[in-house]
Amino acid sequence: MKKTYSGFIAIIGPTNAGKSTLMNQIMGRKVSIVSHKVQTTRTTLRAVKMVGDKQLIFVDTPGVFRPKRRLDRAMVSAAMDAFADADAVLLIVDATHGITDTIRDLITKVQNNKNLFVALNKVDAISKSVLLPMTDELLKLANFKEIFMISALKNDGVTNMLDSLASVMPESPYLFDAADAVDVPDNLYLAELTREKIYKYIHQELPYHINVVTEKVDVDADGVLDIYQKIVVQNDAHKKIVIGRGGEQLKQIGTAARHDIQDQWGVNARLHLFVRVEENWENVAENYTDQGLEFKK
Ligand SMILES: Nc1nc2c(ncn2[C@@H]2O[C@H](COP(=O)(O)OP(=O)(O)OP(=O)(O)O)[C@@H](O)[C@H]2O)c(=O)[nH]1
Ligand SMILES: [Mg+2]
Q: Cβ neighbours of residue 8 under 8 Å, at least 6 residues apart?
């Protein structure tokens, strides 16, 4: 019988390094939402990529930062769990920031993985001369299998990297059936697309305190989706900002999210958004488990 190979690759790194951008570039579509803000990804998302006959299961993780709130702690802990069982670890370094303390700290946590890789990302945004000193510095910190220079955004160096990652996948039956599958529940995915627009249009810190939940999806006789989502905020002042003057802000978010849903899924959809104040949502267990996060007492 023909041998098969399959394994998990945890994509880890500081927040905003480009982990989700890379995940999407690998899959050729939006699996994981992206923003210019830090702390965008809240939970681990898996996607399956076949490279020849080898199955690579990528795990996008929340970026690592110093946690302050309960939600922060759950996010960072989800990232840590992801690499504990991974067959390979791909550490993403934002080359425009260099080797920060967060990177050093992360390396001490993952260095026992026998397939430890690092990608210097965003090479499109820096001068090539800074890459060599960065590589030297990394080599002093751990026994990396390989150091890649990539641009996740411009799709530079990504294909070669996939070949190297594929070469260390262990012999195993395929762990997922589908060839190129994404392992994200539909309701969560739809909520993520809306949350992405909130990150895009609402300024400063407010998006970190917002949750989006898909409550219901109906299909009418013409096959058009009616998607009902609640945007959960912590107080009336936040609600006012999200709705905006004359409802303009909410409309902008809704229109952009609906277009994205239609593009991603090739469907027609109506998106019904409701803003609700739930002062304490960050302390409600269900809001964590719904997203695949662990709720810690
Ligand atoms: N110039 C450039 N920008 C990039 C590249 N990759 C990602 N970015 C940008 O970096 C920002 C953060 O990207 P994300 O993919 O959301 O980063 P992340 O590591 O998933 O962030 P968290 O989910 O918050 O941990 C976005 O504005 C991206 O467009 C790249 O290769 N080059
Ligand atoms: Mg992310």
A: 57, 59, 85, 86, 87, 88, 175
Between helix 158-166 and helix 19-27 the angle, nearest 10°, is: 80
CB-ligand 1 contact for 130 (6 Å cutoff): no
Q: Ligand 1 center to residue 36 CA distance, Å? A: 7
Domains of the chain by start residue, with CATH:
5-182 (3.40.50.300), 185-289 (3.30.300.20)
Q: How close is the Cα of 34 to the center of ligand 1, in Å?
A: 7
CA distance 53 to 230: 42
CB 180 within 8 A of CB 13: no
Q: Which residues contact 109 (CB under 8 A, 6 or more apart)?
A: 80, 83
Q: Which pTM does this prediction carry?
A: 0.95
Q: Which of 33, 34, 124, 161 to mutate to test the pocket of ligand 1 (most atoms within 8 A of CB)?
A: 34
What is the chain's percent helix, strand, coil content, to nearest 5? 40, 25, 35
pLDDT digits (tens, 9 = 90+) for 43-95: 999 999 999 989 999 999 999 888 888 998 999 888 888 888 899 999 999 99
Complete edge-to-edge strand list for the sheet that includes strand 146-149 = 146-149, 116-121, 88-94, 5-12, 54-60, 45-51, 182-183
Is the distance from the beta carbon of residue 17 to the nearest atom of ligand 1 less than 6 Å?
Answer: yes
Two structure tokens written together for 142? 């751990």
